[in-house]
């Protein structure tokens, strides 16, 4: 019994796509991929959205906030035509083009992961968040403690080795580690079973609840609070 249509066969399809990442195999299994992976994934995003609609800051996603399986290989040495995972967003606007706060769901052969926060912001926006970390250090500390207490951790995604330009004087600041981050992302691995039984929806809602203050902190810093 599955909640949204993700089954062991869905993961078998991802394994087969990895082993046969070519246009012939893809077109022969296109309908199967839609039924076993893409449509169920969209339903998961929609279900999570419905459970977040009354939150402090609702996030939403749907089929329109999913990423295509096609890869853009024009400027890449990796010429595989298709991604070997399914990915999609939940954002404050419900728009995939949202470029600030986001929740990301990643369904892969090993189960994948979910993540929340700010990913590779423009330097001007990132610096505004850094400035607020310094100016309102106590609030930021409370936010990070809440996230840690909830059992999550910040992912170290390409952190700077030294302090960013203009922040050298804050090398000993209590938030120096965060000031060196280019992305403020909280992530959690997911098992295959979480997708099959639908509990990934509950995990997305829990992640949103644990990180919404982080995202509000950042959105307010860059002037995008609605």
From TrEMBL:
InterPro entries: CHP02453, UCP028451. It holds the Pfam family DUF2461. It comes from the Bacteria. NCBIfam families: TIGR02453 family protein (TIGR02453). PANTHER family: CHROMOSOME 12, WHOLE GENOME SHOTGUN SEQUENCE, DUF2461 DOMAIN-CONTAINING PROTEIN. This is TIGR02453 family protein. It comes from Blastopirellula marina.
